[in-house]
Automatic annotation (TrEMBL):
Cofactor dependency: Mg(2+)
GO molecular function terms attached to this record: hydrolase activity, acting on ester bonds; metal ion binding; N-acylneuraminate cytidylyltransferase activity
Stored Gene3D superfamilies: HAD superfamily/HAD-like (3.40.50.1000)
UniProt keyword terms in alphabetical order: Hydrolase, Magnesium, Metal-binding
Binding locations of substrate: 17
Homology family: Belongs to the KdsC family.
Residues that bind Mg(2+): 15, 108
Name assigned to this protein: 3-deoxy-D-manno-octulosonate 8-phosphate phosphatase
């Protein structure tokens, strides 16, 4: 369980590769990675959006399929091709009037470290690199691409008394 006051969380921000998709991916004929998605992550992301939890994506990946996937789930803030993620983190905070202690960041590798040091609650999958585990408040028992998003968001929604309490929970 996440050892943090999840009642104050207003936003969960995710990296993609190694978090919401596996760290090992097939390559398409054009050289682009063919990422997998986890259906339970998808379900809980769209539910969280409907219930008012702000979800955002910050990734170094350039693939527009990522944007399409998360737009389909209702995510409004999707940032691709981010070489320095901390800049986008700061913009998100300012745009929505968020405090860092109201935000969770979920990452798995060195490009995520700057944000994880500032997030109220830093989380990672169990197969994250050792340097990221060292700065994480919570290490999920799930590996990247296999339900990390579901694990973290479900804990937030349960702590906030929003899990399975409205008709929104029973559909897409």
């Amino acid at each position: 369980m996440i050892n943090y006051d999840l009642k104050k969380i207003r936003a969960v921000v995710f990296d993609v590769d190694g978090v919401l998709s596996g760290e090992t991916v097939s390559m398409g004929p054009d050289g682009e990675p063919l990422r997998t998605v986890n259906m339970k992550d998808g379900y809980v992301i769209q539910l969280a959006v409907k219930l008012g939890l702000h979800i955002a994506i910050i990734t170094g990946a350039r693939d527009e399929n990522i944007r399409r996937r998360f737009e389909y789930l209702g995510v409004k803030d999707i940032f691709l091709n981010c070489s320095r993620k901390i800049k986008v983190w700061n913009e998100l905070m300012q745009k929505y009037g968020l405090l860092e202690e109201e935000m969770i960041y979920v990452g798995d590798d060195i490009p995520d470290r700057d944000i994880m040091l500032r997030a109220g609650c830093a989380c990672c999958p169990k197969d994250a690199c050792i340097d990221i585990k060292a700065v994480s408040d919570y290490v999920s028992d799930r590996i990247g691409g296999h339900g990390v998003g579901r694990d973290i968001i479900e804990q937030v929604l349960r702590a906030q008394g929003k899990w399975m309490t409205s008709s929104e929970a029973f559909g897409w």
